[in-house]
Amino acid sequence: MTWWKTVALMVAFTAVAAVSQAQVVTKKALTLEAAKKIAAAAEADAKKKNAKVVIAIVDDGGNLILLQRLDDTQVASVDVGIGKARTAAIFRRPSKVFEDQIRDGRIAALGLPGATPLQGGIPIVLDGKVIGAIGVSGETPSQDEEIAIAGASVAKSLETK
Fold first, then answer.
1. Range with the lowest mean pLDDT among 20-34, 36-50, 79-93, 139-153?
2. Which domains, ranges and CATH numbers included, belong to the chain?
3. Of 71-75, 125-129, 140-144, which gets the smallest average pLDDT?
4. I want to staple 57 with a disulfide (CB 3.0 to 4.6 A). Which of 9, 45, 66, 142 is the partner?
5. pLDDT beyond 70 at 19
6. pTM of the entire structure?
7. What is the 3-state secondary structure (H, E, C) of the chain?
């Protein structure tokens, strides 16, 4: 066997060994049932506050799972609520972080793809991992965030499969 064939075989065996040792990560995912429980908690808090809001729940990639628009909530809040939730999910932090950055002079945050820099988006965390997010829109920024936090806090009690 020539020297080149020997080297080629060694490279091929090394590549096969590396592929055979590759791992697939198992992660928890937000189900529709869990999203409904989170939305219900947020809705209950909104009703206590007599708030008219949109509640959006997204998965960890920012894809919409569930949307609720409470009676008499302005239509414009639909896209805003989804944007807040998507921001919290894909950046793995509350959407308020970006609003604060802009308020503090970091206007470059306006250029972040997919960011809605408005308070009211909260990551949904289970076992230390972001599995989705909730976005609330329709009332004051702090009230939107309070309602989102009330929904996101349900994640601690979610049953995992």
1. 20-34
2. 27-157 (3.30.450.150)
3. 125-129
4. 66
5. no
6. 0.84
7. CCHHHHHHHHHHHHHHHHHHCCCCCCCCCCCHHHHHHHHHHHHHHHHHCCCCCEEEEEECCCCEEEEEECCCCCCCHHHHHHHHHHHHHHHCCCCHHHHHHHHCCCHHHHHCCCCCCCCCEEEEEECCEEEEEEEEECCCHHHHHHHHHHHHHHHHHCCCC
